[in-house]
Amino acid sequence: FLFLPPRGRMFFWLDLLLLWLFSTPCLAFSPTSDRDVLVQFYKETSLFSHWENSTGWLLAFTNHCDWFGVTCNPENRVTSLHLPNNQLSGNFPSILQHLDQLESLDLSENSLEGEMSLFIFENMSQLSYVNMGANSFSSIKVESNTDRQTERVLLVDKEENQYEFEESSQKRFMSLEFLNGSSNALRLMDANFGLVLSNTLKTLILSNNLLTTLPFTLTQLQVIEEIDVSSNPKLNVSELIWELSSLKSLNLGRVKQFGQIPSQSSQLTRLEVLELNQIRFDSFPMEVLKLTTLKVLDLSGSNIRHIPPEFNALINLEEFTCSSCGLSILEPWNITSLKKVILFNDEIELLDVSQLTNLEVLWVQTHRIFPSSLVLFTKLKSIAIGSRSMVEPFPELPDSIEEVGLLDPNVTFWPDSYQKGFPRLWKLVVYLTVSSGLPFPYFFFTSPTTTTALPERDIFKRELSLTGEIFGELPKEFPNTSSLSLMKTRLAGTLGSGMFDPYSALI
User: Fold this and answer.
1) How many helices (H) and strands (E) does the chain have?
2) Does the pLDDT at position 476 exceed 80?
């Protein structure tokens, strides 16, 4: 060493320092305050991109409770961390396990990836809400692999099917009530998922992922109220999911392997929402009729072609959607609880709504509506009619109407019933989409034929949206119009600069 030149001695000491640094075990990060945790969290999630909004973060002499997205209790302990759509990146931030007073966590719509390591929250007794939707996580883990001792467990369902899996011999429970993992790249879930969250989880949203199976222990979720696993194109739905008697909402739309609704579905005595859109049935799924507590039913894209008379057994149904169901003839319904009916992309000859007097929304594709006068439907606010030809006569509408939609009428003139019907409406939103050539609906802008003085808040509420083959000259004024949208039309003319002031327009 003594015979080395000065420059050589410098490199000798540098090499020795590097050797010491890389041979010394790394010390685990041990925060002493919530502020320390947040600082480290910021560093871990901003390595590959800068946050969209980092107001206050890491600034000296500022209270961490004033940082963007942070909420604290009176003791300056972090209780909520909400940073959705903020360009966070990196792996699941395990450092958050040190925020032991955290109640709500929302890191959705970011670029986090890897394993969603929920087991870090097992000792956080206050945490009930976690939203990790719209990231890039590939799996959900509720147990750590380290020091994990397991035993073989045999689960037998009510149909005497047997399922064997590994259960941790050390029971772990979490306080989570709400978990959103939708719109990720999830392929795997821990087999013990349902056991770890059996006593707390109420809402599970895993839609728009790459799941192929669900863990059998899902049946152990004793208080689950909502499950959404829709838009998992490779998912094979197990019949076990129909045994969760606490369920109030179930969304299985757009899954690959569905089969038929099993007989044990009758156990869902609290189910209010059932969404089965884009599930292909050979005929109407009669097991649904046993679910008399249903309030919302979506069978869109099911190609059932026929709705049986027994449909009236759903006496509590409030919303029914069956667009693209292959319907042509419908028998009258007497479900007076119905408030919303959507039947698009079919050609229904006649729609009898005479018994549906509580309707608020009616969107249908039909040639004729009965009765022709809907004046007595005093709760009706929105009606949209699609047909290859104009529905004639156009139904007389009640004063409660606020929105009218006319979609794809294949005609080149406005029938008299339309021109007589529109001017009587004061508050109105009109959506018009046509594939043939229709003249501009000037009659829409005539003065309302009413002698009743309306409150000022109800004046000038009209909106007009026109799309498609509509031709003619634009009027010089658009009275009583707050919003105008003209998309891909063949209209000509000039819009004055002050025409919509103080209104708005989209051209």
Assistant:
1) 4, 28
2) no
What is the pairing mode between strands 78-82 and 70-72? antiparallel
- Residue whose entry in the numeric block shows the structure tokens 């013990």: 192
What does the block give as tokens for 382?
A: 């929105």
pLDDT bracket for residue 9 (50, 70, 90): low
Is the CB of residue 244 less than 8 Å from the CB of residue 219? Answer: yes
pLDDT (0 to 100) of residue 434: 59
Residues making up the chain, counted from first to last: 507
pLDDT of 494: 65
Number of alpha carbons in the 13 Å side-chain half-sphere of residue 180: 16
Q: Give 485's strand partners.
A: 465, 506
Tokens for 120, please give them: 């870090």
Tokens 């149904």 appear where? Answer: 317
Mean pLDDT value across residues 477-504: 60
pLDDT surpassing 90 at residue 296:
yes
Q: Facing residues of 167 across strands?
A: 151
Mean pLDDT, the chain, rounded, equals 79
Residue 26: partners with Cβ closer than 8 Å, 6 or more residues away: none
For 51-77, give the secondary structure using H, E and C: CCCCCCCCCCCCCHHHCCCEEECCCCC
What is the Rg, in whole angstroms, of the alpha carbon atoms belonging to the chain?
30
Q: 51: closest CA among 96, 97, 107, 117?
A: 107
CB 227 within 8 A of CB 202: no
The pTM assigned to this predicted structure is: 0.80
Calculate mean pLDDT across residues 154-169.
48
pLDDT band of residue 382 (cuts 50, 70, 90) is confident
Neighbours of 192 (CB within 10 A): 25
Place of tokens 């049946």: 219
| Cα–Cα distance, 32 to 35 (Å, whole number) | 8
Of the candidates 299, 291, 286, which has an alpha carbon nearest to the alpha carbon of residue 327? 299
Among 451, 493, 449, 446, residue whose Cα is nearest residue 471: 493
Query: Structure tokens of 312?
Result: 């009236």
Q: Are 477 and 455 in contact (CB under 8 A)?
A: no
User: 45-49, 255-259, 270-274, 441-445 — which is least confidently predicted?
Assistant: 441-445
